[in-house]
Amino acid sequence: MAISDPNDRYVRQAQFAPIGESGQAKIQSARVAILGCGALGSVASELLVRAGVGYLRLIDRDLIEWSNLQRQSLYVESDAKQALAKAEAAASHLRQINSSVVIEEVVADIHPGNIAEHLRDVDLVIDAADNFTLRLLLNDWSLSTNTPWVHGGCVGANGQVRYFTGVSPCFRCLVPEVPDPSDVATCDTAGVIGPATHLIASLQSSEALKFLSGNSSAINPRVLSIDLWRNQIREIGIDEHLSNQCPACSGGQREFLDAAEAGASQAETLCGRNAVQIPGGSRRIDLGKIAERWQSVAPVQATRFFTRLQLPDDQTLTLFRDGRAVISGVRDIPHARSIYDRYIGS
């Protein structure tokens, strides 16, 4: 028996004067995309669903592993046991938190050929990506559509947040090119702690609520950089000189969006995982037929998003509808490609 009224769900948030009833109504009519459902995206999506965002699109290419549970608090042990797609598991949990929010899950690898499709018709994007190439692609798309987004990044105990308007200045003013891998720490090399990712995702969500509720004047115009371990907080402005020389927002270049062959991403080892992702190009896969074919080979797990083949030596091949595959248990790209070709075909 309920002891409170479901209509009171947002009453405390609406009592916060800068939001009020009108701001809450704006939040409930807003459409947001979360690009990445890992440490930042899983937390930000939960906060926005609890805040009552009307529509949420969850986009992620990855699967849940045991090492995710240390910081990705939306997921539970059963998700890791089944190695579910993050977007699928996140959507399931979020619908139990707030059934009034319309949630769309997208299991896909974002590239120049599909970013417009998957980010269509949204008011704001939350950046929870795990690589700079994707962020620079998002930046190009944002400038081409004038759609705002909230950047967030976190490694170790360090993180940063900034809201970008979809005009100048932009993310490329800060990061002109994809950094050399030797110059950038990752979760695979430096680790990461849960309090840091939760803090950064909370700051992203706060900036998002300012925008969505009609309080853009309260948004921080600087990069907020935090070292949680050393208790250091800095605000970093973007020099006008950098913006004037930016090839993207000032020069009009969209080289990440205008990649020569849309979708022709390279095979890559996945951050923090003993796994390799093989791109699928433009092919579409009949997962049902693949599952039938594999039944005589080894144990098969099939969902509406992927089909997984359990191979010897603790190796798995997870195939998605777009032809993309994640081969777990290997870090050598040529070896992963040989497994892909053997069971799927080149």
From TrEMBL:
InterPro entries: ThiF/MoeB/HesA, ThiF_NAD_FAD-bd, Ubiquitin-activating_enz
GO cellular component, as recorded: cytosol
GO MF entry, a single one: sulfotransferase activity
Pfam families named among the record's database cross-references: ThiF
Domain THIF-type NAD/FAD binding fold span(s) in chain numbering: 10-247
Domain of life per record: Bacteria
Family: Belongs to the HesA/MoeB/ThiF family.
PANTHER family to which the protein is assigned, alphabetical: ADENYLYLTRANSFERASE AND SULFURTRANSFERASE MOCS3, UBIQUITIN-ACTIVATING ENZYME E1
Protein name: Molybdopterin biosynthesis protein MoeB
Organism: Rhodopirellula bahusiensis
Biological classification of the source: Bacteria, Pseudomonadati, Planctomycetota, Planctomycetia, Pirellulales
